[in-house]
Every structure is written in structure tokens, then in C-alpha cells.
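Deviations from the work plan: none for this task. Representative record:
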Amino acid sequence: MSVAIRLAGCGRTWPGGSIALHPLDLDIAAGETLVLLGPSGCGKTTLLRLIAGLEAPDAGGRVFFDGEDVTRLPIERRHVGMVFQSYALFPNMDVAGNIGYGLRVRGVARAAARRRVDEMLAMMRLDGLGGRRIEALSGGQRQRVALARAIAPRPRVLLLDEPLSALDARLREQLRQEIDALLRSLGITAVYVTHDQAEAMALGDRIAAMEKGRIAQIGTGRDLYHRPANDFVAGFVGDTNRLATPEGERLVRPEHLALRRSATGGFTVVQATFLGPVVRVLLRDAAGRELRADVPDEDVPAPGERVAVLFQGRSLETEAAASPA
Amino acid sequence: MNWRRRLPGWLLAALVALPVLLFIFWPIAAVLGRGFVVTGPMPEWRLHEATQQALALLPEVRREAALARWSVPRNPQEEVEALATAFRLAGVTPPWDLAAPFEAQREAAAGARAALPAAARARLEAALPLAAVMRHRRVALAFQVRDQLSPEAFEALRTGEEWRIGLDHYRAPFDDPHLRRAALNSLGFALFACLVTTPIAFALAFAVHRGGVRWPGLLRAVTLLPLVAPPVLVASAIIMLFGRRGLVTDALLEKGLGLIDADETNIYGIAGVLLAQVLSFVPAAFIVLDNTLRRQDGRVEEAAGILGASRAQTFREVTLPLAVPGLKRAVVLVFILSLTDFGNPLLLAGRDVPVIAAVIYDEMTAFRNTGLASALCVLLLAPGLALHLALERIGRRKRYDTGAGAGTAPEAALPRAWRGGLGALALLVAGAILAVYATVVAGAFTVEWGVAWRPTFAHFAAAGTGYGSSERGVAVVWDTLWVAALAAPLGGTLGVALAFVIERIRPPGREVLAFLALLPAVLPGLIFGIGYILAFNLPFGLESLALTGTGAVLVLNILFGNMFVAVLAARASLQRMDPAIEEAAEGLGAGLLRRLAEVTLPLLRGALLLGTLYVFVDGMTTLSSVIFLVSGDHKLASVAIFNHAGSGDFGQAAAKSVVILAWAGVAMAGIWWLEQRGGRRLAGLR
Amino acid sequence: MDGVSLAVGAGEFVTLLGASGCGKTTLLRIAAGFTAPDGGRVAIDGADATAAAPAARGMGFVFQSYALFPTKTAAENIGFALRVAGRPRAESAARVREVAAMVAILPLLDRYPHELSGGQQQRVALARAIAPAPRMLLLDEPLAALDARIRHRLRDEIRALTDRLGMTALYVTHDQEEALAISDRVVVMRDGRIEQEAAPADLYLRPASRFVAEFVGQATLLEAEIVQGVPQALGIAWPLAAARADGPCLMVLRPEELAADPDGPLRGIVESARFLGAMLRVGLVLPCGTRIAADLPARHLRPAPGEALALRPIAAPALVPR
């Protein structure tokens, strides 16, 4: 039973006076996964904790779950599930004890609780680890236990605070897919905090890009990628080039540029780096301005060669102002 | 409904804060205040008034009878003194020699009396009975009208003394040459102790952490051994080895080799005190520096190494500067420990080399000058505080934590020369410590050390005989055991509860609470002892609440005097704990009490066990805070040991010490076992 | 670690890539001289350096936790090596400024480490390592503690720096994307051994084993068989990159190697369609139950879950032994 979340005029000021979050409004649909994306200190974790009930908004701010005002409810009464960056598992209990804690606190009958714990162990591919101690688990296993513990009491909302940042890149990708599948199958409303735009794209139905305590833009991945509201968002969700075209200045993504060898081309290849799926080519014109282009790994011009850069079929003139972000 | 959520927390805070205020703040404040109270003899005219008022309280008939009876002098001295006072009351200076023998004075006084003019003589005759009472019968008078007088008036009349607020006591060390000498001696010892002990402790800690010795765990254990020492253990052992009838000086060098005369060449004096203090305080400094080095990130030293710094340069540029906060703390700690040490100086230097701490002891026990003792106690704090503030100015802008990676040691081994030097030092210190314990154990089984070298078990007899027999015998240790065993769990629990209140409930004034809990650690034990007498002798003037002379006051003193270890350990655990753990429990629906019981407290188990152990062990061995609190009904082994050592009765002292050590060992083993049982599952705290 | 041999040429940028515990950091520390190998040799420019102290090897080291000296300013940190070598003060100061400018932290020289952000601290660590002009730079996961965005920026800067100074570099990371982006050669490690050693393109396009194929880049591994020189998988024939003997193998299918084509031979139902920015990652379920992932240009396609979709291979997938 997932809920829709609404924030009205929620801000947060630290006791010292500095502003963590400017008052904002936010609507999250039931069953939606919203990703809060931004650099350290942008306020994304603060916003998550406001929704959770670990912190209270400044006077005038309100939080609603399905229309019910929960602003005054502390976290233990909001019935949310939370996954922390450091997992925060209870070292004095074993895996089953951790997963079942939320059920025990709410007074669920022992038999029913045990069934639910077994269900979670299976769902998270932790079969047979119920009696294991926490310190005997690997990082990936701990994260799964943290997820299981959060989901076991069937919360209305799932909140995740950079749950994968402590893991190796490979493990991160693996778990990212698992979390994506999990969120989709549970159909639960989820808010996910991260600083990694690839993660945001992979997991979010919608993404809220945040900077310095404000939401710079909120929309689907496509919205942010193709129609960024400002330079910050443009630069955060991917690399961009800024081109001056006859229609005016526009932001162009590297994959939308093509290269053609030309002795009279306006650009020289500075560097071509193999990234796997594509090759990233760094180009420079006579005036020293730089462009980045992503091209398939087929007959890529080598450093020093002169090329013409094509955008939407047309070759760019050298007065194209460029600024890789 | 925010306040309702907070209520249990506030209640707990109040429950914990109240005893702290009552049993730590109040006694210490009492000592502070007592130093300003100066008592002295009343001036004659006021004494006259008081006597007159008291006499007026007697019913008419009894008064006449009493006056008549009391005016009769019982001997020439009384007669002369009463006459002299009467003269003064009449406004005439006594015209005879007041220093002459009393018979001579008697004659002269009679002559002077006769020679007075009529008016003056009339005044004299009128004043004489009162003068007689005033000088010699005041005590009887006071007891007769006792129930009609307030307690203060009764005391004043009885003793003839009055009190006023003044700085006399605080000025005493500057005015009195004897106290001046003692103060300089104290400072001298303290300076030497901290300057010698700290580098030694640092070298040992460095050896333990950087692989300078082959068995670091063993070295650490031996270095910490003196912490579990009954009082004046080190001093006793030193005397037993190097005193006038010491094993080395007397038996070996004099009688065996004929090299020296042990009565002339021995360890008594300044050298003995210094040696005893260094050996006694190395463990305390070691703990601080051990902790400091443990927290350093070994990678920083590797970084220095690969940037070209030699081992010596790395030590100078990186290791030492990073250890500065720990070094500062160790220096101040040893300074304070030395300044407040009275056992070692008393035993090893006696009154030839007076120190303030011993002076305080004398003032309390011999002269009952509580005011002066209190003031000296407070003055004793000043140098330590000054040193602390002076050192604080060093390195204020810098930070010393190296962030992530703390606790890893660099892999490279120390150069061989370093390892040799450190190994030698470790051998020396460890050898000295082990020698101390071995000597004491040997002494426990020797009939009379230095005189009769035969083995015996007599010192372990439960009851004692002979002089001071109420303290002789090992039965005294049982009393100590009960007191310590009662105080320990209470102290540990209260300490952990206080730490929780400070770190998690965070009421206003929590820093003050933390400071108060820590105060007994930095104050000399003497202050705490005197404070308890002042505060609980007649609390609020109500005798029924008086605690002195009971066992309760001993338990309370030990409890609150040592609670700080539990507080420190629990605070450290709580600060290290990932706050997200408690938030996670909160998120899963657990309220405050539930969180406390199921999540937070299990993680504080280690701190609780450590705190309890410390109260127990220190309770068994503490001396300075309880030395004034023991009474006929309630004795403590530590005080008995001190007395035995002072009178040269080393067999008794050693036997009791051995028993205490055995019990301390049992306690430590017990705590270690408890820790192992539940501790393993708490290993993954990070 | 077990019997590992590695050669790094002058001026090369080599990365040790692997998961936690694979031995890459241990190898780096042996090269630096912090850890002694149980057996074997370390040679620098041909000369045996196995017993040489770290300071004598002429290397700079950047630690994962930065390991800056907390009681010294940034300038004092950077100038440390010069100072302990006894260089004259004016010369050291000039060099400190030179290096600080290279890593863009000139205005921060008077700050203490705790007054700097993570990225700034890492630059100071870098500057400190290169100040004494070492011939080689060793870096132990220097960017692991930083935000993704800063990581992307700094890794390019590090590579640019070593190029500019002509320095040989040995770099350790667990992030394969990072390794591909900045290395001349990548050494993939696993359980204390080297799995494969190759240039980024070779590693990606021609992985030697299943482990490398899965570790580097995205891939779906399919059971395949080479029949008469043509790879067969999922019931269709695939293009072949290099000649290979007949027999069973595994096909490393990367998402960018498929394109949408209404006449394509791979037909299935769309399970998920995730917008990744430059591409749309489509998860397709084939009738046999196998799931494959394809990256399709995001501009014009919007396949919805449940729709039918047809794909065809547009490149020759790598093949590895089973």
C-alpha cells in the first residue's frame, strides 16, 4: 500500500543560521521512484530526512502522506523504511534478528514474523544466512540485509540514502540493477539519494537535480538530459558542449556530434580515448576552444589530424563557442 | 506533542544529575568555601560578653551558687590568670611581670590589687568572679546552658574561638617559611616527575606500537601493572630494597660485600621520592600515550618515508608533532599526580623534605586545622591548571586527527639501533616494576624484613595481635572488599547512564555535568576526602543525616570518585557509534526506552564492564580520598597498609597488599570472562 | 598474491584493476617498498631495488586516504620532500608554487588539511608527491572517496599531469570505467593473480576470459558454438571478428552491439526501457526466456514495456572460452 508524498513550503535551517534547504514544494506520486541528485552539501540528504521524519522542517513547512499531515509525526510513527549509506545494521543481533526487528517492535506474532523474515531472505538471495553475524558478511550482503530490514515491515515509503556509495564499482552496478528490479516489483513509493548521475538515470522515474539547497530541475531523465534548465543541470547529468548556431546558443551532447576527416576542417584532434561503448574525442580549434565528441570505435581520427565537426548534418564554423562542462 | 516524547529523557537526566550534584559538586564546593573560614581566639571583650550572656541564662539561684563555686581558684595559676583578666576588664593593665613563676606573680598581684584606687578596686572586685569563669570554667558553663544555646554559640563559648571570612589560609604558603619550602619542594618534584616520566612512557608506547620490542602485549601488561597497586606499594618496595635494612643496601652491600654502611647510604630522601614517583606514574602516562599512538594513521609515516625523510626525520617531523596533544595531556596528568602524592614523600623523605600534600595530611590528622588543609588543597589545583592553560596555547590552530585509516601501523620495521635502545629501556622499566612486585610478595612471607629472614604465613592470619591490632590481620581486607564490591556496579551503571544522558539526551548544562563527573579524576584525592567530611558531617546542620563514621560514606566516596572511567569509556563508545544505527531503530518503530535497551546499551557493555572494574580495583587501593573517612567501625585495608608501612611493619603491609592484588586479579579475570562471553558479537561495531 | 610479474615501461600509464582484496594494492605497495615480497624481485630501470627503502626508489605515492600531515599547511606538505633533502628555502618555495599551480591550488597554500575539501586535499596529496620530481608516480585508489562528478574531472587531470611531466604512472582502482578512460595499459587482477593485461580497447573488445568480459564494461554472456567458422547463439548466426576454431564458447554481447531493426533476427518482448542519457537501455526477453540488453539511440525510439521489438547485431561480439 504505497502512498503519495507531498511537501509544502519545507525548508531547513541549521542552528548556526546556515541554510540547508530553502523552502520548497514537492509532489511524489504513489509508487514512483524519485531520485534526489546533486553534489555533496546540496541538501538532498536533508530533504530525505525531512520526508523520513528524522528532522523537522522550519516553521510553516508541511509534509503529507496521502493527504494526511504527518509533519508532527516522528519517524517511528510514519511507517517508512530507511536504508542508510553505512547500512547501520545492529551488531548485537544476527541477520534474522536485524531483518525481523521492525516486525518485533510492532508486535507481530512470532510465527508470522518468522515467515516474513524467511520471505525476505529468499527475496534478497540471502538464503541460509539468517543465523550469520553481521561482521561476517560482505559489503554487498550487508546492503541486502539493510534493504530486507527496511522492507520487511511493509512500509508505505522506502527511503534510500546513497546506499551504494560504500561499494566497489562492479558491486554497485550489480546491486543497482537488483534495487531497480526490487523497486519495480514492490511498486512502493521510493526516494533515492545519490551523487552519481548514471545511478540516477538507471533507477529514477523522475530525477530532482539539487544545488545549494534548491531543486534546480525536476523531471524525467530525458527532460534533464535534453532540456536542462540551466548550466548546472546540463553539466551534472552528462557532458555538454556549448555551441553558437545561427539559431542561437545551444547545449549539445557529445554523442550528437560527428567527425569527418578534412584538410580544411576547423578542428584538430587533441586526444581520442577509448571508453568502451564509444571513443571520446577531444577537439580544439585555432582559437583554443575545445569540444568533446563521442563517436563509435570505427576509423577514429588520430591525435593531430584535422577534422570537420558535424552537428545535425551541418559542419560547424570555427566561431562556434565551445565550453565542455 | 514534542514534550511528551522528551519526558522520559528529561526524567532520566534529572535522576542522574541529582546524585552528581549532591556527591561531587557539594563536597568540593564545601572545601572551596572552608578555606576562606579562619578561626581564631575571640578577643577578650567578646569572650566577656558571651560569658555574661551565658551566665544570664542560668536561673538566679543556680547562678549565684555557680559563681560562688567557680570563683574559687584551684591553683595559683588560675588565681593569677583570673586576676590579670579582671584587671584588664577593670581597665587597668596588670602591673606585674606576667612571665614570672606563678608563686611570684601571686604575691605581686595581691600587692597590685591592694594598691588600686578605690573606684578601680571596686570594678576589679566586681569583675573577678566573671573573669574566673570566663577563663577557666567556660566549658562547664557551656555544657550547663547547652540546650539554651544554638550549636554555633555553644561551640564558640566552649572553645573560645570565633570564625571570620578571610584569606589567611590562602596566604599561608607565601607567609609561612615552612609552607613556602613545602610548596617549592612539591613543585620541584612535580616538574621533575612529568619531565622524566613522559618521555619514558612515550618511548614505551612507541615501542609497543611500532614493533620496537618482541612481545608488545607483555610489555603493555607489565607497564600497566602499577595501576593495580595497593597504596605505597612502590615506596614500600623501594624501602625494602634500598632502605636502611634493605635487601640490596643492607643485606647485600653492607653485610655481604661490606661496601657501604646502609644507615648512611640509602634511598631515603629526594632520590627515593623521585624514583618512586616515576615508577608509580609511568602507567598513567603510558595509557594516554598508548591511546594517542593507537589512533595515528600509519600511512602518514609511510608518506614521509617515501618523500625522503629518514627514520629520525619522520619521527621529528611527523610522529612527534602528531603526538603533541597526547604529550600535553600526559605531562599535565603526571604533574598533577605528583603534586598531590603524599604517600611516597611521607614514607621516603619524612619531614626532612616537606611537601604540600603531606602538610595537608598533617594539618587534618594532627592539628585538625580543616581550614588550612582545605585552602592548601585548593591552592594545589593552581599549578596544574596553569600548566594546562599554558600548554593549550600550543598548536591551537592545528588539527591532529589524520582521518580515515586511523589505527594502522606502518609495516616497515624500526632500525636495529632503535630497537636495541627501546628494548633496553623496556627491560629496565619492566624489570623495575617486576622487582617491586616480587619484593612485596617476598615480604609478605618473611617474618621480619631486614631482620629475620625466615619464611612464615603469620602475616596472613585473619586477626592480628599486638600494637594496632585492630588493623592487623587480613580480616580488614574483607571490609574493603564489601565496600568496593558494593560501589563498583553502582558506579559503573551510574557512569554509563550519565554518559548516555550527556551524549543522547543532551539536556542544557550537559557540559557542566560532564565536567563535574570528571572532576574527581583531576582533583587530588585529599580534596574529595576532606570535602566528604565537611559536607556530610552535619549536612544542613542535621545530625540525623550525618554520614561520617558510617560505611555508606566510604561507598559513596569510592563510587563517585571513580565513576569517571565509566563515563569516559561510555562517552567514547557513544561518540564512535554510527548515529545511523539508532536512527534505523527509530525508523523501525522503536521508542526511546526500547532503543536504549535493545540497541544502545548492548553496545555499551564494554564500557560498563570497564567502569565497574575500575571502581572495584581503585576502591580496593585508593588511599588519599578515604584516609580521613575511616573510623573505628569501618576500616579500610589501604589505610591499614599505609600505617603499617609508615611504622616499618612491612610484613603486615605486604601481606595485605598480596591479598588485595589477588582479589584484583580475580575481578579482572571475571570481567575478562564476561567480556569474552558477549563481546565477540560486538566486534563489528564499525 | 601469487607469482605476479609485471613490467611498466618508461612514461607509461598502467592501471591495476580489480575488486577489493584482489591484491592490487599489495602489488602497488611492493613496488613502493612499503611491503616486502615473500619472494621475487623488484627492478627499477634495470637495477635491482628489492631491498631498497621507499625513499631510495625515486617514486611518488598518493594514498587513498591522502595521508596529509595534519599539523602542516598545504605549502609545508608539498614542500616536505624538498625540505628533508636540505634544499635551499628559496628554491623549495619556488618549486612549491610551481607544483601548486599545476594542480590549481595556488590560493590554498596557507590552509591546513582540515580546512580543505576532499578534492582539494587530493590535489595537495598529488602536488606533494610530484614536488620532488620523481620518475614514477604510484596512486592507490586516489579518487575513491570523492563524488562522481569530481572523480570524472580529477581523473582526466591526473592523466594530463603525468603526460605533461613525462612521468611513468602505476594506478590502482576498482572502477573499470576509470581504468579505461585514463590508462595506456590495464592489468586486470583477481585473487592475487593477473587475469589479463592489455590496452583498454583490447581489454574491452577482446577479453581473454569470462571474468574479464564481465568485469570490464557491460555484457550479457551467452552460450555459443562456432560451427564451421560461424558463431551460433540464440538460434542465429553472428558476425565473427577473428578466425577461431570450431567448438563451444561464450559470447560477450555488449549493449551497443545491437541495433533496432524491424527485420532483425532477434525478436522479443520489451521488459524495461531505461533512459541513460546518450542511450536508451532496453531489456528484451526472447521467446527462449533469455534476457539481453541493448543500447539504442534515445532520440527517436520509445519502446514501452510489453511491446514487441526486433534487433540485429551490428558488430562482432567477443568470444571467450567457457
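The mean pLDDT of chain C is 91.
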